[in-house]
Design brief:
383 residues; binds flavin-adenine dinucleotide; 8-stranded mixed beta sheet; 9 helices; single chain; globular; 28% helix; 6-stranded mixed beta sheet; alpha/beta; 20 strands
């Protein structure tokens, strides 16, 4: 068995979160290795849409993480190749009636205090922003900070730019321990020894925690996306109806769907995404697809006659309070978690990488880590 010493950290998972952790850790001068049982972005990252949203987050720790990430994505867009398709296109949240406009207004008020730009758009100005939007809407809010990346490219380019050692096609089958502390990982081919191991295994983060002898209740939350035939740029922003915000925040296991519609530089319109907790069930749900298509056509009637070329699905890494687990695990010295970002992991990846790097180097964290504490689900009152 090969043994690799002299690493500062091993990161499990080559999704966007693991890649961002590798990028910021390497920039801080750490020697890191990234190991994944599959390909780069072969997990949920390759099934995500790439929305970088502040608009759907209420004031609180997740929004703070999103705002930091928004700033970091802008910096990354300036140094990573254009292939990441960063587009600061802005979001538009629309309301069907006056009561919803009022609810959005109070939601935006809280967001503004946290640093979000939220601009109310009266009903008669909606078409100036989105000429093909359905008539009859009561108003909306424009969020200029919402943006977009191509998630698989973003992960691949972050990882390449990190210069980290990368081991693909190697499953972590064991977490090495020495006197109760983590000392590296084992794959069928080698042992990678390091004083810190970062669990960036996304939806499978609970299994890695288990290998290290601790618990983390990460569950899959399935989502479908529809991809249309290439079209001229009909949809300029990320556009969604206000009830999407409630869907995101809900902990229900039942099928929820509220379409987010957006054009892409290459032409297809992306329509995502449903949410439901059905384990790792990969079967096609025509009900989910039907709902998405109907909601998208209700927002943009022009889409009713457009062909859908394909659909895909993925499993969001869900934690019961909708916040990721980020930071050192006090139950297992040397173990850090960076997983459980649910439907926002692409957006939140850079800030997660920055927080993990601060924990690895002992630097001042850019944000308070307490809300993301990995042992917060423990019933142990001694914690
Ligand atoms: C339909 C859908 C739409 C979405 N849209 C958006 C969006 O618009 N914006 C947004 O921000 N987020 C979105 N998300 C969520 C986002 O995709 C995830 O939060 C994010 O990709 C999680 O990234 P990750 O790196 O944590 O996990 P992953 O990308 O899943 O990476 C984890 C990696 O760990 C590896 N791994 C697991 N176990 C092991 C092991 N034992 N050994 C080695 N490797 C292992 C896996 O192979 C995988 O590559 C969406 C998700 C879905 C399903």
């Amino acid at each position: 068995m090969l043994k690799r010493h002299s690493l500062d950290a091993v990161i499990i998972g080559a999704g966007v979160v693991g890649a961002a952790c590798a990028y910021y850790a390497a920039r801080a001068g750490l020697a890191v290795a990234v190991v994944d049982r599959g390909a780069v972005a072969g997990g949920t990252t390759g099934a995500g849409e790439g929305n970088l949203l502040v608009s759907d987050k209420e004031a609180g720790p997740e929004l703070d993480l999103a705002l930091l990430s928004t700033r970091l994505w802008t910096e990354l867009a300036a140094v990573l190749p254009p292939a990441i398709e960063y587009e600061p296109k802005g979001g538009l949240v629309v309301a069907p009636d006056d009561a919803t406009v009022r609810a959005l207004r109070s939601f935006a008020e809280g967001q503004r205090k946290a640093g979000v730009d939220a601009v109310e758009v009266p009903a008669d100005a909606l078409q100036e922003l989105e000429p093909h939007l359905a008539p009859g809407l009561a108003g909306g809010f424009h969020y200029p900070q919402d943006a977009q990346v191509q998630p698989a490219q973003a992960a691949a380019r972050l990882l390449a730019a990190s210069g980290a050692e990368v081991y693909l096609g190697e499953e972590v089958t064991g977490v090495l321990l020495d006197r109760g502390a983590v000392r590296g990982v084992r794959t069928p081919r080698r042992e990678l020894l390091a004083p810190a191991v970062v669990n960036a295994a996304g939806t499978w983060g609970g299994r890695i925690a288990e290998l290290a002898g601790v618990t983390l209740p990460v569950l899959p939350r399935r989502g479908f996306v529809l991809v249309t035939e290439p079209l001229p740029r009909l949809v300029r922003h990320k556009v969604y109806a206000a009830d999407y915000i409630a869907d995101v925040a809900s902990g229900s296991a039942a099928l929820q769907s509220s379409a987010v519609v957006e054009g892409t530089p290459s032409g297809p319109v992306l329509i995502g995404a449903t949410r439901e907790r059905v384990g790792f069930d990969r079967s096609l749900s025509t009900e989910a697809l039907r709902r998405l298509a109907a909601q998208a056509a209700a927002l943009f009637p022009v889409l009713a006659d457009v062909r859908v070329l394909r659909t895909y699905h993925g499993f969001r890494p869900y934690l019961p309070d909708h916040l990721p687990a980020i930071g050192p695990d006090p139950r297992r010295p040397g173990l850090l978690h960076a997983c459980g970002h649910e439907g926002a992991g692409i957006g939140l990846a850079p800030a997660t990488g920055a927080l993990i790097t601060a924990a690895l180097t002992g630097a001042e964290p850019p944000l308070p880590q307490a809300p993301f504490h990995p042992a917060r689900f423990d019933q142990d009152p001694a914690r």
